[in-house]
Amino acid sequence: MTRDELLNIIALGEDSTRQFKADVHNVASLASEIAAFANSEGGVVLVGVADDGSVPGLSRSDLTRVNQIISNAASHLVRSPLVVHTENVSVGKGRIVIVLTIPKGIDKPYFDNNGVIWLKVGADKRRVNSKEELRRLFQMTDQFHADELPTKAGIEALDKLRFRDYLKEVYKQDYPDSHSELVRLLQNLNLATEKEVLNLAGLLLFAEQPERFKPQFIIKAVRYPGNEIHTTEYIDSDDFAGPLPRQFDEAMAFILRNLHKIQAGRGVNAPGVPEISLVVFEELLVNALVHRDYLVSGPIRLFVFDNRIEIISPGTLPNNLTVEKILAGNSNIRNPILVSHVAKGLLPYRGLGSGIKRALEAWPRIDFIDDREGSLFTATVRRVERIRSVKSSVKSSVKTEEQILALLAEKPEMTIPEVAEVLSLSTRAVEKQIANIRKEGRLRRVGPKKGGHWEVVRNKS
Questions:
Q1: CB 207 within 8 A of CB 213
Q2: CB neighbours of 445 closer than 8 A, spacing ≥ 6?
Q3: CA distance to 106, 230, 385, 395, per residue, from 388 (Å)
Q4: Coil, strand, or helix at residue 100?
Q5: What is the pLDDT of residues 129-149, one digit of tens each?
Q6: Alpha carbon distance 138, 37 (integer Å)
Q7: Which of 283, 286, 277 is nearest to 247 (CA)?
Q8: How far apart are CA 153 and CA 423, in angstroms?
Q9: In terms of pTM, does the model score above 0.85?
Q10: Which pLDDT tens digit goes with each residue over 117-131?
Q11: Is 170:189 a contact under the CB 8 Å cutoff?
């Protein structure tokens, strides 16, 4: 690292990946800082840089002492020991800054010499001081999963008819005759614990009234007028409880009744087509129910506005996932027991990592926000706002373009005459609209005129 590169880093200030120390004397204090970085995303400590960003540096006589402190802290006062990297950077006048790089730990959690677990919070650090935080830390390292947690629901809380149908359909076997056989079967399916109570997965999938034991794990839905949240005014509101399949069905029905219906070239007596393909909401709701963080006590929230629909899940993306990675199809399993049973047909789950991509293919106007500070993950489906005045050629043009994009996103193989028929337009009008859309870079043709398909380019803004 050059001096200029170092100064550029210092100019960014302290945050969750950078910390400044004018000098180091306390080996135990440094060990806690190293443990905090390792339990988070890793980072650098710049020794020889003051809190205000000034660079007093270290003398050459200080180097041996500080490096010995670093070695002792990383090797002896952090459990498990960590391999850290140091680099000396000259800052002029015989002064040096030590760049101490701490990797993201692969054997979390890391403890200091007093058995305390530390986490980075912005430029500071804090102790892990609750069971929930500790569980989440173990969850991040795949040593623990929320869906295997025991609940207070005994085996008698089971919805016998629901579980019986599941056994017949998936495993081709009858409901057990005796209590002991039922307990053993539930345990073998990872739905009950050794103490003969349902775990969280068993409760959420097969209990008759899971909300009696976990009232926070429901879906709260509201249809607001306009585009803002109102404290007292709403058009439609409901809470969806029960096992996850029931929550899914009722939430889908709520969305459907609050979507606009488009005639789409059909007869006046034919039912309208939803403005947005229901595949979009199937994928996003399943993702919310199966992959949310069940260590965060709170409901999934479903908000419908005039210009968008939001599905807000408690918790952030697990491990090192980012929005960019999930858009590329990457995924991590946070609740493996739930996933294993849902994939057998309890919900329309079509494969790990494919749901987000499938939703975007059906409707590209979806934004995702991973709010680390608020511990929330939000999927926002942008609606095409209804056109109130058909006399406005500009507004009418916008509406038609969006309808064309929606059709081609859902059925990329459609021909221009087919699009024209669905939208009750002339072929020439559709050709003109598509030419404009392609010129804007929102649509491209892949392959030949015959046998090729359309590809909707997702809006990056």
A1: yes
A2: 438, 452, 453, 454, 455
A3: 57, 23, 9, 9
A4: strand
A5: 666 666 666 665 555 688 999
A6: 16
A7: 286
A8: 53
A9: no
A10: 888 878 888 887 666
A11: no
